[in-house]
Amino acid sequence: MSLVGWVVAIALIAVSLNRVKSVYGDRTVSLMGVCAAFIFAAQMINFPIPGGTSGHLMGGTLAGALLGPWAGSLVMIAVFIVQAVMFQDGGLTVLGPNIFVMGLIGTLGGYYLYRAIRFSLGRDRWLGAAVGLAVSAWLSVMAAAVVVALMLALSGTVPLGVAMAAMVFWHALIGVGEALITVAAVSYVWRTRPDLLYDPPRKLQTFSRSSALR
User: Fold this and answer.
1) Which residues contact 33 (CB under 8 A, 6 or more apart)?
2) What is the distance between the alpha carbons of residues 9 and 148, in angstroms, rounded to a whole number?
3) 54: which DSSP letter?
4) Tens digit of pLDDT for each residue in 107-165?
């Protein structure tokens, strides 16, 4: 499982770097740093879970909503590398699977689910964004928990029933916290600097063009 995780992780890093270079501007770099610092601090708080593992906030949907799927994935990858190398949090052996679970599932999956829900309910309405953020943040945590439980069972570390019961139950609660933090953080940016969002409200874009014409 570690080898498979590393293969997926390397592919994700390569694609993300390529997309960021071709799509994103210089302003995104500073926002990536701020976002990485916030997510790093949040992830360092771990909750022991019965069954031989632990849980923590992910931040993938938050990174995706602020930076987009590819820059958001790079931020998550950078956080995982710093945690593994400097703080031995998880270690290098499971770094690949961590990037796969929380980078691919948490960030890419979280962003595209958030985008689908938001655009279906109203791209320029905060209600649509809030619902999309809450649902995708919670579901991304749950999906990651299920995948980790499967990985633990396949590796022979913990029986599937024990791993699944522990991971799903506790991460259902952690997911609520993830959803609340994600909505609160993006709400602040939406109200104060909506232009920093990866998918800003179109009324902001229209206003900016009108002001430029004057």
Assistant:
1) none
2) 15
3) E
4) 999 999 999 999 999 999 999 999 999 999 999 999 988 988 888 888 777 888 888 88
Residue 83 CA to residue 181 CA, distance in Å, equals: 21
Select from 106, 118, 121, 137 the least CA-distant residue to 200.
Answer: 118
Question: For the packed helices 160-192 and 126-154, what is the interaxial angle rounded to 10 degrees?
Answer: 150
CA-to-CA distance for 21 and 30, rounded, in angstroms?
Answer: 15
Residues whose CB falls within 8 Å of the CB of residue 203, separated by 6 or more in sequence, listed in order: 124
Helix or strand or coil: residue 188? helix
Residue 55 main-chain phi, psi, to 5 deg: -130, 155
Name every residue whose Cβ is closer than 8 Å to that of residue 174 and which is 6 or more positions away in sequence. 47, 55, 56, 57, 141
Asked if 55 and 172 touch (Cβ cutoff 8 Å), the reply is no
On average, the pLDDT of the chain sits at 82
Q: Which two tokens stand for residue 166?
A: 């522990």
User: Tokens at residue 170, please?
Assistant: 């506790």
The pTM for the full model equals 0.81
d(CA 30, CA 37): 11
DSSP code, position 214: -
* Exposed / middle / buried, residue 107 (Cβ in 10 Å: 0-12, 13-18, 19+): buried
DSSP state of 52: T
Enumerate the H helices of the chain as residue ranges: 2-23, 27-43, 60-67, 69-87, 95-98, 110-121, 126-154, 160-192, 202-213
